[in-house]
Design goal:
The protein has 189 residues and is an all-alpha fold. The protein has one domain. Helices cover 71% and strands 0% of the residues. Helix 3 packs across helix 6. The model has no long low-confidence stretch (mean pLDDT 85). Keywords: Membrane, Transmembrane, Transmembrane helix. It comes from Eucampia antarctica. This is Transmembrane protein. InterPro entries: TMEM128.
Length: 189
């Protein structure tokens, strides 16, 4: 039988890099990642990036068209239209909070809009996004089932919504979103 040797916990802790530096504080303006080289990516408004995002939007819209989503949402008997209307109301609330943050806090008050300055609004938006996802999923489930509904939500979110937000500047996004949502809600009834 071999004897077990007790390991020294303090020697392991003393040698750990993250524990040795735990008393040091970074100053404001210090680079949080000094070992990462600067990015050589193209700027956000470069024509290649815009073309790539427009391609994502076009391909995603075409895939959703092939699945018959647009017709099914407006006229389909299998879609739960009450849940879809609740999802649209939540989307309007998300847009209202987004507009408040970007226009009032960002442009009018000249505050930097980030997590540190707007924690409550960030958490509200995160909660509303999760709630909207669940509600739209419940609305589309009877028509498409579970896997197709998740696929549709992913294609719409990552293939249409996010690229549109990256292509269009915020001062155009907010009024355009309000106009389009109002038009869609009016057509949906």
């Amino acid at each position: 039988m071999t004897a077990t040797v007790p390991m020294s916990r303090t020697s392991d802790e003393e040698s750990a890099q993250f524990l040795r530096n735990r008393g040091t504080r970074r100053k404001k303006g210090d680079d949080p990642f000094p070992n990462i080289p600067p990015s050589t990516a193209l700027p956000a408004r470069h024509p290649v990036n815009i073309l790539k995002r427009l391609t994502y939007i076009s391909c995603s819209s075409y895939v959703l068209h092939l699945m018959g989503l647009w017709y099914e949402v407006i006229h389909g008997p299998d879609v739960n239209h009450l849940w879809f209307q609740i999802g649209m109301a939540i989307s309007v609330a998300i847009q209202a909070v987004k507009t408040y943050l970007e226009m009032y806090e960002g442009r009018y008050k000249k505050r930097r809009v980030d997590y540190e300055n707007c924690r409550t609004a960030t958490h509200i938006i995160m909660f509303l996004i999760i709630l909207a996802t669940l509600v739209f999923h419940a609305a589309l489930w009877p028509a498409y089932g579970g896997a197709k509904t998740m696929f549709i939500m992913g294609v719409f979110g990552f293939g249409i919504l996010i690229p549109i937000m990256l292509v269009i500047p915020t001062w155009i996004q907010n009024p355009l979103a309000i106009i389009l949502m109002t038009f869609f809600i009016q057509q949906y009834q």
